Amino acid sequence: MARLRDAAALNDAAKPPDPPTSEASALLALSSRAPKLELSTLDLCFLATLYLRGQSSGSAAFTEEQLFEHFEQAAQVVERDPGSVRKRATHAIARLRAQRLLSRVDGAGLLRAGEYALSRLGAAIVGFFLEEDVLTTETLTLLTRTLESSLREVLTRAREAADADALDAAVVGPLKVTVHELTSGIERRQRGLDLQQEQFQKEISALLSADWFGAVESCQSLLESTAATLRDLNHVLLSESHRLQALLEDLQELALGFGAAAAEEAIRRAADQLDRIAAWSSGRQKSWSEYYQYVHRYLRDVVRLDPSRALTARLRDQLSGKSGKRFTLAVAHTSPPLLLREVAPSPERPPVKRPRAERDAPPDEQAAEDPFAVLEDAVRKQLDAGAASLRDVTALVTSELPEAERFRAAGRVAQVVARLARTRSDRERPWLPVSDAFAIEEWTLPRKESAGGRD
Amino acid sequence: MQPENPQSFEDLAQVVEHELFPDVDLALRRGRHIDRDDGAWYSFLSDAQAPLEQFYRRYGAELVQRTDGFFFLLPSGDKLGRRHLSPSEMLVGQGLTLLYLEPATVEQGGITTREQLLSQLSASMGTEPLMLAFNAKKKRMDERVAQELVRTRVNEAIRRLASLGFVELLPDERIRLRASLLRFAEPVRGGTSELEALSRLVASGEVALTEDAHDAADDNEPEAGDGDGDGDADATVDAIAQNVPEWSEGWGANFDQPAGEAADDEATSEAPAGDPEEEPS
Known about the structure:
Radius of gyration of chain A: 46 Å
CATH topology of the largest domain in chain B: Arc Repressor Mutant, subunit A
Structural class of chain A: mainly alpha
Mean pLDDT of chain A: 81
Helix content of chain A: 55-70%
CATH superfamily of the largest domain in chain B: MukE-like family, C-terminal domain
Number of strands of chain B: 9
Largest sheet of chain B: 3 strands, antiparallel
Order of helices and strands of chain B: HHEHHEEEHHEHHHEEHEHHHE
Number of domains of chain B: 2
Strand content of chain A: under 5%
CATH architecture of the largest domain in chain B: Orthogonal Bundle
Strand content of chain B: 5-15%
Largest sheet of chain A: 3 strands, antiparallel
Low-confidence stretches of chain B: 213-281
Order of helices and strands of chain A: HHHEHHEEHHHHHHEHHHEE
Distance between the termini of chain A: 101 Å
Mean pLDDT of chain B: 76
Helix content of chain B: 40-55%
Largest interface: A-B, 44 and 87 residues
CATH topology of the largest domain in chain A: Methane Monooxygenase Hydroxylase, Chain G, domain 1
Distance between the termini of chain B: 33 Å
Shape of chain A: extended
Structural class of chain B: mainly alpha
CATH class of the largest domain in chain B: Mainly Alpha
Strand order of the largest sheet of chain A: 1-3-2
Oligomer: heterodimer
Radius of gyration of chain B: 20 Å
Strand order of the largest sheet of chain B: 1-3-2
CATH architecture of the largest domain in chain A: Up-down Bundle
């Protein structure tokens, strides 16, 4: 099995699965359809009647009249004296059809009254309640032997494969269908056995409650029979699972040799399923063994020593204060020894002193800067340098400002330019971009020829 | 603890040299009951019973084995310390024993829950007497606070009984009932009258009679708050932890320590914390 695990680990590393996503999408798809099941006892009994009649008659389809008849029979059993059966049958049939438990199979539509059959879902629900799929030594041996022969066939075909694709074709399909079905069959029967054990435990408790001392023999025989069944099952599983795992290992070697990733994945899944079955067996064996010992002790120490259940009655009287003297039990008492902590020398710390220097420094006086004056100086500088238009002045002055302040500064530039220089504009005043962020209405700034400056 | 193959011990030296001896010895001295569920410990005690009986007799204690399948140490002299269970521990122990005897518990393999225990106590004693038993000093009781206090004290008692091996605490508030619980039913077992059985048990030192359960509760369990606030129940635990017993007694008397530190250790130790009913040895 170690080889299988290693191969599985390699496979995992090469191709990481993504189950949460697929699970989530499957759940999402399911919830989007908003499916729900709502079944009363009568509905279930009606479905069971159809299931059983179908099995006995060999025909899975029922006419409408037969449906009404079977519903009436089920209602008679469940309610003894049912009323308005026909009307309720109509509703029940509609309800079961809406839940896809019953489906119309004739396809005639309006032409004539239909024929109906249990759907796969309906049959499965009834099968769960009616069938007793419990694991026994016989069924387990049969299933494991069939599984072994299937695996041998798969191995033979895998050995004949020439390349990875042929190996995938020979392994994946059979493992997914045949082997999966067989192991699922074993697991389903395991769940059946679990249910049966739970019933046994309830039965033992009920037997003791009903007939305290008289139930000892029947309780012991129940315990023995279940213990023997589990022992046999464990024995079969231990021997058979070893052979099955050996076959899977051979398959895994072939898949690794060809580098057939799909086959490896299918083999790993099959091996996991077999591991689960074996783990179930040993787990149940252990827990039943504990329960077996407990009940045996209980029968010996409690039931046999107190055949009339007087002890419980006396203890209850004592607890309620109806009889007996109050007492208290003595027990030995020794306090646990004291574990002293190790002494750690404290580090040398400097003595605490008041700081001599003043902590707060006096504030320095700073000359305030008028941003408008700065802007005016910059505009004046550009005008003196011979800027020919408002756009030039604005672009040069605002280029050093942050992006967010340029638009606001443009208005102030225009105001300063209008104050410091003579401006001229055409009748049609053009809007020209200063930067990517904004545009302004253009003015030209005529030069004063004599002075070389502005008017 | 897995059971081992039977061993034969020729003398006490072999027993003391056994790897399990220190743990089993300490557990017994701390009042632990050891039963078949303890596996290797129980097997060791069964195999070494004869030399260990002689060994503990020198300490003035008896290694008791019951046919129900458990061992415990019963000090009778003054060399080993001992204590008596508090009234709340006794009530809870008797309730758990009733559950142990119930056929309904068999269905769960001897596992029960705190809710089932409270339900059993309430059904056997009645709700009012149950609350009175756990709130003895209260003059005026707010019902909700009183119920909370009962639950707290029951939980505390279960924890102490678990440290003594009467029950085993499992996840999800479940409790595994053990055979040693049958000690609580000793006075009412067998064909003899209850008085006769009690006299025999008192003479052997296994039990002691108490005057009145309520008085005993007053004496032994610290009062928790005034009963007029939400913190009443929580205060119980603190009060119990603060009420540290006289340090120390019997075996281990050489581990003297200040009472303040003892409180911390007792609160976290496996042994029952600071029970006022301890007998000085």
